[in-house]
TrEMBL record:
The protein's name: Uncharacterized protein
Taxonomic lineage of the native organism: Archaea, Thermoproteota, Thermoprotei, Desulfurococcales, Pyrodictiaceae
Species per Swiss-Prot/TrEMBL record: Pyrodictium delaneyi
Domain of life, source organism: Archaea
Length: 73
């Protein structure tokens, strides 16, 4: 996944998720599973998930891609 090639200036991998009412529970489930490993920022219609772990970022991005939640733009 191209989104995991580089980190932000602070060294975090950032995964952007589209926040929709119908998928809110799905997002909560995956974030709850990694609550100690991620920083979650609510940006309105988008949720920014930051983590230092590439493995965790890949898991979250794969889940989001599968469920159509990955924000690409």
């Amino acid at each position: 996944m191209d989104i995991l090639k580089r980190t932000d200036p602070r060294g975090y991998y950032v995964v952007l998720l589209s926040k929709t009412k119908s998928q809110e529970k799905s997002i909560d489930v995956i974030l709850e599973a990694h609550k100690d490993e991620v920083i979650v920022e609510d940006l309105g219609d988008i949720i920014a998930v930051r983590t230092r772990s590439r493995r965790v970022a890949r898991k979250i991005a794969s889940f989001a891609l599968k469920w159509g939640l990955l924000e690409t733009g």
